[in-house]
């Protein structure tokens, strides 16, 4: 396709109106999928839901094709475009009775909202950027959880076998305590036979819920700040490029005007050489000399 036509498709695809229309279709798809979960509505309006699903899928296919035409090979260099392509492609696969699980891919189309909205895309990108730091913090959290589970199993096996009877139960109990959900009930049952058990639970909550979890949040926030700063730098570079291009275009236009004016205006005529004030050697004044 000629670059001129490709550029026209790119203007259409990148326009705010086109983006809002895609977001509206994704939102409509989410609402339709939510209503379809109701057995009564699904039986009463089965045909309508089927038509809506086919129309929305056709819109998504047309959108993907337009973006491929607009960007060409550059379309496949963006991971988010692969994300959209996989989701839409999975929805196109026929779902027979033996492959009914493939129908669940229809619900994944709502996730396309992440790739369409720039703010959500930055958040997800920041999460992926934070994976190295998150891995260390998660390992620290799991190590704390495992250590506390082993200690709890050794200390409270006899006092509360329903919570600390073996390592598996102890791990689940300490994970429940980590979520700070219903942990007072666990602590009270253990403290009924071990009054000093509150020290163990309080220490575990302070270390994990307050320190380690806040460390995880800090890593995520730092990654999001870095992503936002990188996006701002990119936008500043694009703005500077636009301003530079505008200035160079203005200078080029002024230069062309000057050249046109120089071509239209008449050339100046050279003035005759001025006579010397002093007389030449042959015309010397003979005043005061005898004839």
TrEMBL record:
Q: What Gene3D superfamilies does the annotation carry?
A: 1.10.287.70, Voltage-gated potassium channels. Chain C
Keyword terms: Membrane, Transmembrane, Transmembrane helix
* Annotated Ion transport domain residues: 16-226
Q: How does it sit in the membrane?
A: Multi-pass membrane protein
Q: Which Pfam families match?
A: Ion_trans
- Biased composition range(s): Low complexity: 269-279
What GO cellular component entries does it have?
voltage-gated sodium channel complex
Q: Where is this region: Disordered?
A: 269-291
Which spans are transmembrane here? 47-70, 82-102, 123-146, 198-224
State whether keyword Membrane applies: yes
- GO: which molecular function terms? voltage-gated sodium channel activity
Q: Where in the cell is it found?
A: Membrane
Which PANTHER family does the entry mention?
SODIUM CHANNEL PROTEIN 60E (PTHR10037:SF62), VOLTAGE-GATED CATION CHANNEL CALCIUM AND SODIUM (PTHR10037)
Which protein is depicted? Ion transport domain-containing protein
For this protein's source organism, the top of the classification is: Bacteria, Bacillati, Actinomycetota, Actinomycetes, Streptosporangiales
